[in-house]
Amino acid sequence: MRSVVGRFLEHSRVFWFANGGADEVYIGSADWMTRNLKNRIEVVAPVSDRNAKRYLRDVLLDTYLTDNTKARELQPDGRYTPVLTRSEPFNSQDYFIGRPGSD
After folding, report:
1. Nearest to residue 96, comparing CAs of 72, 66, 74, 73?
2. Angle at CA 51, nearest 5°, toward 12 and 58?
3. Which of 20, 21, 66, 79 has the greatest CB tally within 10 Å of its CB?
4. Could you tell me how far CA 31 lies from the centroid of its own chain?
5. For residue 30, which phi and psi values (nearest 5 degrees)?
6. pTM across the whole model
7. 96 has pLDDT over 70
8. Taking 70 as the threshold, does the pLDDT of residue 34 lie above it?
């Protein structure tokens, strides 16, 4: 699991399960922290539109998974650690801000 928290505190929550080639994509408000699950309702909904699923997987998730400046990965012990890379710095949220049609 990877988390990217930057300028947009209410960041995208997209879940992709390859499911043996039958991709399942979900979007939602779910911030699955214990304090949230005990005190409010969090919602996740499946995405059925093929084009929307493709965009979420191939553009949105791919961009966030490329992030190496704000990204953190969940470790087995529950800690989040920075994503280490030798490539050029890439900030996914800055990328989306600069895309045409983002204003």
Report:
1. 66
2. 55
3. 66
4. 11
5. -60, 110
6. 0.75
7. yes
8. yes
